[in-house]
Amino acid sequence: MVKAIVIRETGGPEVMSFEEIEVGAPGPGEVRLKHTAIGVNFIDTYYRKGLYPAPGGLPFIPGAEAVGIVEKVGEGVVQFRPGDRVAYAGSVGAYAEARIISAQKLIRVPDDIDGFTVAASLLKGMTVQYLLRQTFKVTRDHTVLFHAGAGGVGQIAGQWLKSLGATSIATVGSEEKAEIARACGYTHVINYRTEDFVARVAEITGGALCDVVYDSVGKDTFPASLDCLKPRGLFASFGNSSGPVAEFSLGILSQKGSLYATRPTLGHYTATRATLDACAEDLFEQIRSEAVTISVGQKFALADAVACHKAMEARETVGSTLLTV
């Protein structure tokens, strides 16, 4: 038996229960993994609340990112062996001391990068990778608006955008977070609590506006984000921290400049072994080169997941958050 966070009904942080569970042995193509560090992401709250349906329904174990040591391998698994250090992102079930997982979802952790760094960055960093290098291929010629620039994803994005030479604009919710965003390399920072971000974007760009807007906030920043885009610009919605974007008529995209809109997910950009490995390796290379450094803002024990979620939803966390096992 091992300990895990179990959710039997959706709702607030208090629905998470710290319980003993049976893990068992891995089946064909599977690995039994002992976690050493678990990444916490805002998407975990979406599953907890029921905004996103949990795979397999209730009850379920939340969390989609972790680093661990392979304990056992199932029949047919040849790429990993007991003792290997591995990680994964995007597979719900991480808030546990150990779990069974498909070997196809695992990434080998490089020897030159520590486990806490990987646990704090894999999901967020691969999200930044597909957003900046695949959803819209950002270059030094582009102007980018990135909402929530001081968050875990935003901090990585700011550094990556700086390395690409792009003009980057971040929005944040406080002066403290503005300082964090500036330190991460954003060219301009807007405090949306004291400034109208649409007006400031127009001012910063001299009316030219942005080539792409990356939005993980959702309800509170839409449709204003569309007003920050130049004609034929791209609106990329990849999260809903303030609530989901309301349904809208496609006609608004033509009215505001023949705009594009997309709702990408990491799973679709890393659906094959080749695309998963390539995405992760691009992130690892950014870390190795020190173009991107990872900030672990806070750590909670696995048993304290309720307090962790409360702090995260109260916007009291900065950078990446880990659960320790």
From TrEMBL:
GO terms, molecular function: mRNA 3'-UTR AU-rich region binding; NADPH binding; quinone reductase (NADPH) activity; zinc ion binding
Keyword Translocase part of the UniProt annotation: no
Pfam families: ADH_N, ADH_zinc_N
Annotated Gene Ontology cellular component terms: cytosol
Ranges where the Enoyl reductase (ER) domain occurs: 11-323
Keyword terms, alphabetized: NADP, Oxidoreductase
PANTHER family found in the cross-reference section: QUINONE OXIDOREDUCTASE PIG3-RELATED, QUINONE OXIDOREDUCTASE-RELATED
Protein name as annotated: Quinone oxidoreductase
